[in-house]
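README: folding subset

This subset contains proteins for which both the sequence and a predicted structure token string are available. Records are stored as plain text. Below is the entry for G-protein coupled receptors family 1 profile domain-containing protein (145 residues), shown exactly as it appears on disk.
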Amino acid sequence: MSCCYTCILIEINRQLHKSKAGESLRRSGTDMIPKARMKTLKMTIIIVLSFVVCWTPYYLLGIWYWFQPEMLKVTPEYIHHLLFVFGNLNTCCDPVIYGFYTPSFRADLARCYRCRTPADSPRSLDRLSARQGEHESDPASVKGT
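--- output ---
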């Protein structure tokens, strides 16, 4: 996982140097590469940290058992199961972390927690499509009328 994210960061960095050398990668007239690099770096750190936080207790228990096998008789079995389930929770965390880096997901999540209407969500796709529909049906928004 770390290797894949390192490759992504290297590619973003390579694209950044290409754009400085004359080839431009631009979206809407603004340079998005430094922003994408920082976003990817933050997401990589969070994903790696979530992996470490979720799996470290289970592996520490395994290392402890390796050095003191008699501890298996002392430690309740439900502790082993809980730590294993906590480690597997990492699989559920990754899509949520990716989602938090998507503006529409964050806006819709905030709307769910606040029980707001879709029109209140600033970046919601529902609001964007509703705005577009309003402009198309509003005769005052058409130039020349």
